[in-house]
Structure formats: C-alpha cells, structure tokens
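Quarterly update from the structural biology core.
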Amino acid sequence: MIPPELTGPYGHALMRDGAAVLGADGNPVTTLFNLPAFLICLLLGGLLIIGVSESAKVNNIIVAIKASVIIAFIIIVGWYVIQHLDTLKANWDPFIPEPTGKEGEYGWGGIFRAASIVFFAYIGFEAVSTAGQEAKNPKRDMPFGIIGSLLICTVLYILVSIVMTLMVNYKLLNVPDPVAVAVDALGPAWGWFAKIIKIGAIIGLTSVILVLMYGQTRIFYTMARDGLLPRVFSTVHPKFQTPWVNTILVAVLTAVSAAFFDINTLGDMTSVGTLAAFGIVCLSVIWLRTTHPEIPRGFKVPLYPVLPALGIIACFALIFTVENRVLVFFGWYVLAAVVLYFLYGLRNSQLQKGLQQHD
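Predicted structure, tokenized:
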C-alpha cells in the first residue's frame, strides 16, 4: 500500500470524491511526491531502451484495449442518452454558458481556453513524424499515419464529448475522471462498467506517455547527430540498437516532472511548447518556400500559403490563453534554448557547416 502522501504532486491537498482526504491527525493530507507516476515513467523508459519493436508491441496492445473501452463507452452511454434524450438534453442548455467574469471560465473565452488545453490531446500525432527513420516508406507512410490517426481520433473525441456532456451536466465534469463520472450516472447496475472505464483510462494514459517519450528520444537523437546537442546523446546501444543515453535522460526528466508537478501545469506547459513549435513549423514552410524554392520536397502543403498562415495565427492566438505563470516559464525556457543554440549548437551543427550527419 502506497502512503497517500506519495500519490500526488508536491504541495497539493489530496482530494477524493470532491473532498479533502484527512490524515490520522485529522488534518488534510498534503502530497509530497507522485511515486506511481515516477515509477511508470522509468519503467516505460526501460522499455524504450530495450527496443522499438518491443515498445510497439506493447503499445499496440494498449491502444487496442483503449480503443475498445472508448468505443464501448460511446455505444453504451450513447444508447442510454438516446433513450432519455428528452430529459438529458437540458444538460446542453445553455450550449455556451455565460462567462463568469473569471478569465477563461465559460463563454467564448472559455472555449478558446479549453482549445489550448484540449490541444494537449493532439500532440501524439506529431510523434508519428519522429518515427520517420523506422518507417519503410516515409513519403507514403508518414502522411497516411498522421492524417489517418488524426481523423479517427478527432471523430472519437467529438463523440465522447457529445455523449459525456449530455449524460452529465458540465459542472460535474471538472474532476480527474470525468468519463467514470458519466458512467456512474448510469446507476449502480453499471458499476462493473465504470471499473472497466477507469482501468482503460489508466492504460490509455500509459500509451500516451510511451509514444511521447519515444518521440522526444528521436528528436534528441537527430539533434545530437547534427551536433545541436552533445554527441553522446546519439549513442546507440550495441545490443538493443536504441539511443539509450538520451532515453535515460528523457525518462528521468519525465519521471521527475510527473512526480512533482500537477497535471494542469504540465498540460499547459506542454501545450504552449507544442503550439509554439507548430507555429514555427508553419512559418518555416513559408520562409523556406520563399528563400529556398529549389530544395527537393517530399511532401506538399495544400492551400499554400493560406493554410500555414492560418496555422501561425491559430497557434499563437491559443498560446496567450494560458495562465501568465506558464507563459513566464515558457519565456525563460525559450531564452535558455536560444542561448544554448548560439553558444553550442550553431558552432557544432553539421548542417550549418554543410557537412553530412555522423551515424
């Protein structure tokens, strides 16, 4: 049994069923360290070191379980909603709640604030592109994988949102397990299904961690091969043929972050960083098309330059919907990255010198 103090981020009151958990002394329990999250991240890091194929097999099993649970939720709860739509449709009235005056709470401001949070769910699609070196035919497989998974997941996201907000009033869904709350609303007879949903949610989050950690290790590997990072981070394990040094670094950084920071802060930081990266990619498409039109291009951007221009506007508009403290942290992070680039990366980059990357 894990002590309750070791089940949450540092300095947060442990909550259960909307109420603070009290310790033996009668005072609210304040968490110090999220031990389960820490151990899961280290375990997944070890799996990534063992190999891509092994990680892919585990991830395929996890995704199959997760998809089955999501589809079951949509079908079962959706059928209940259809049967009781006359009474449950009141949960959509009003469809867009009036703003409370608090920044980002309801109204159109709340919609844009939610968009910056929900964006976190779309980060995994970028991870597909980081697997280009493991793909047999990247030119064909990358667009198919990214666009195909994007369409499927978007449809599932929308269906889950529709079913969940019709089943339960939105005011009751601001909890760590909103899907379980929606299932609990079916009644005690569906208690077994609620347990399956909770297990499926845990399994699903595990697959997200695995995919994103994998993507980050490949980004560090590519940067180290070019010289933007120290060459040690491109070191490949002689037996497992994986970039084991930078995988250990990613696993430790991820584990420590998960152990000490709350999920809302981590989600905002991740979304801001990814939004900025996506916006810069859109800007780079326009810049390179203008300055280097002769570069061979394996992929084409549809509706150029309208689509990348809209991408820039959308990404940077969503960035400024997050809390100021997150923006301040991101500002310092960008400054540190720029300093690292000019003091180390620019001097050692093989691409900058017109040289081939070292294997």
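The longest helix spans residues 191-226.
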